[in-house]
């Protein structure tokens, strides 16, 4: 064994303690550090010829790279829809690496059963029934890809084509209908050979809405009668967290033949709050569902879950036929359900957080974030230099400059807020107007944090 590696092995408890000290120090100072580090990164160093050992690696990381990492795990990082990592999920994530389980098959480990238990808990959390099975994937993009892949196989079933064997070309054109699809839907269509140009946008409801007009959707389905299609419904759009009427869309399945995929990347968490649960009424009728866990469940990147009613079709798409992997019989190994063979035990951080805080704890995070988003929205309306682009429906505040909201000026506002170190937000365009999005999904965020963000916005827009 290499001498440095052998020395690290002999000192492993000390090295883990050193890493623990760095992690504890960073976590304790997270609320006070700059939220983003927009400066230039250090130049690239050459590959070391001789190892410095774990102590040396930790020291070099702390010196060269840690100062430039963002505070994305902190309470005022409002870009994208980024949760943090609850204390229990961090513990689970560390143990995921320590145990380093191989989930390609059962492999003499109980790890797959822990994942199955976690999937069942999540299914119940989001109000899905026993007809839905699920598996962990990296994020919403892969979850949407898996759902559409199963939908593609379903379309082949309707047309007498085995797409997994004959290819997408044998299927012919397959259209995907959606009102406000996330960009990952078009990406998934590209990956699956459906083609980005087969995404058909259906008219939205009037009155500053991002929700699909169900009557217009029915008209689009009528035009395509006799040919299977996929409908992607939204449970929480990116800009305004608008929700399609899932129950009304599901009712259309009685008259039209389509696969219903629901993108509930973060909006599905509305199910946890009695005040907002009606927004996801009808989710259980979906044929496939996407939920991103490193958003509102606040587990470390990367973790999402996908659900479907047609596990048989899922296995048809993703099974890996090899003597050393076994056949997907009975309860299939997860390698037969997702694009990955090699995958870490993403379920463990989620399992830890669900056990530690339960339904009630995660409901409190959701409801607090919604209240804080409303508070920021009211504050934005009160600032003379800013205006809302849409109502605050759940946890995202979409706003812009009150005067001359050009791309350049809005980008300048974003840079000024970032440079203050107080907050970070991502740009968007809504209704043709450049703006910013402030997304609340972090378990740490408080009213005091929201006031700091408002002061930063006031200073940058004044």
Give start-end ranges of low-pLDDT stretches. Answer: none
Count of beta strands: 11
- The largest beta-sheet arranges its strands as 1-7-6-5-4-2-3
CATH architecture designation of the largest domain: 3-Layer(aba) Sandwich
How does the overall form come out from the CA principal axes?
A: globular
Rounded mean pLDDT score: 95
Q: Element order, helices and strands?
A: HHHHHEHHHEHEHEHEEHEHHEEHEEH
Q: How many separate structural domains? A: 2
CATH class of the largest domain: Alpha Beta
Q: Which secondary-structure class do the elements indicate?
A: alpha/beta
Radius of gyration, in Å, reads 23 Å
Number of helices: 16
Q: How much helical structure, as a percent, in the residues?
A: 40-55%
Q: What is the CATH superfamily of the largest domain?
A: Type I PLP-dependent aspartate aminotransferase-like (Major domain)
Predict the CATH topology of the largest domain: Aspartate Aminotransferase, domain 2
Report the portion of residues in β strands: 5-15%
What is the straight-line distance between the termini? 63 Å
Largest sheet: 7 strands, mixed
Explain what this protein looks like in three dimensions:
This protein is of the alpha/beta class and 462 residues long. The protein has two domains: 91-352, Type I PLP-dependent aspartate aminotransferase-like (Major domain) (Aspartate Aminotransferase, domain 2), CATH 3.40.640; 359-461, Aspartate Aminotransferase, domain 1. Helix 9 (183-191) links the parallel strand 2 and strand 3. Helices cover 42% and strands 12% of the residues. The N and C termini lie far apart (63 Å). The chain has helices spanning 3-10, 12-28, 53-64, 87-99, 111-125, 140-159, 163-166, 168-171, 183-191, 214-223, 246-251, 293-296, 311-318, 347-382, 407-420, 447-461; strands at 133-137, 176-178, 199-201, 229-234, 258-263, 288-292, 304-308, 386-388, 396-401, 426-430, 433-439. Belongs to the group II decarboxylase family. Keywords: Aminotransferase, Decarboxylase, Lyase, Pyridoxal phosphate, Transferase. Residues 30-51 are annotated as: Disordered.
């Amino acid at each position: 064994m290499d001498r440095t590696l052998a020395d690290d092995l002999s000192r492993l408890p000390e090295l883990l303690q050193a890493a623990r000290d760095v992690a504890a120090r960073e976590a304790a100072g997270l609320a006070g550090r700059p939220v983003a580090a927009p400066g230039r990164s250090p130049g690239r160093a050459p590959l070391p010829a001789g190892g410095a050992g774990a102590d040396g690696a930790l020291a070099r990381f702390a010196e060269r790279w840690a100062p430039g990492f963002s505070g994305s795990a902190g309470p005022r990082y409002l870009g994208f829809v980024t949760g943090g990592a609850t204390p229990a999920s961090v513990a689970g994530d560390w143990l995921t690496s320590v145990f380093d389980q191989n989930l390609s098959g059962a492999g003499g480990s109980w790890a797959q059963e822990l994942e199955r238990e976690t999937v069942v808990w999540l299914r119940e959390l989001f109000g899905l029934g026993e007809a839905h099975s699920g598996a962990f994937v990296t994020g919403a993009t892969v979850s949407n890809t898996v759902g559409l892949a199963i939908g593609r196989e379903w379309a082949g079933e309707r047309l007498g084509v085995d797409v997994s064997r004959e290819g997408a070309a044998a299927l012919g054109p397959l259209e995907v209908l959606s009102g406000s699809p996330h960009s990952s839907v078009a990406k998934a269509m590209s990956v699956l050979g459906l083609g980005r140009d087969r995404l058909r946008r259906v008219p939205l409801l009037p009155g500053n809405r991002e929700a699909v007009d169900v009557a217009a959707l029915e008209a689009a389905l009528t035009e395509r009668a006799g040919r299977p299609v996929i409908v992607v419904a939204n449970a929480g759009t990116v800009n305004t967290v608008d929700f399609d009427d899932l129950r009304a869309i599901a009712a259309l399945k009685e008259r039209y033949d389509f696969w219903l995929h629901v993108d509930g990347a973060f909006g599905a968490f509305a199910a946890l709050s009695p005040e907002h649960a009606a927004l996801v009424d009808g989710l259980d009728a979906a044929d496939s569902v996407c939920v991103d866990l490193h958003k509102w469940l606040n587990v470390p990147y990367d973790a999402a879950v996908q659900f479907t009613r047609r596990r048989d079709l899922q296995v048809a798409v993703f099974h890996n036929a090899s003597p050393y992997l076994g056949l997907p019989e009975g309860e299939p190994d997860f390698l037969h359900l997702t694009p990955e063979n090699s995958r870490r035990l993403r379920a463990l951080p989620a399992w830890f957080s669900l056990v530690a805080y339960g339904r009630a704890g995660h409901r409190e995070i959701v409801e607090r974030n919604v209240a804080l988003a409303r508070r920021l929205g009211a504050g934005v309306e009160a600032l003379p230099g800013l205006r809302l682009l849409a109502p605050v429906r759940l946890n995202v505040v979409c706003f812009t400059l009150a005067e001359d909201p050009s791309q350049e000026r809005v980008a300048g506002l974003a840079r000024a807020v970032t440079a203050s170190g107080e907050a970070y937000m991502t740009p968007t365009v809504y209704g043709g107007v450049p703006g910013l999005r402030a997304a609340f999904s972090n378990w740490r965020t408080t009213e005091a944090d929201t006031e700091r963000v408002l002061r930063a916005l006031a200073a940058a827009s004044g």
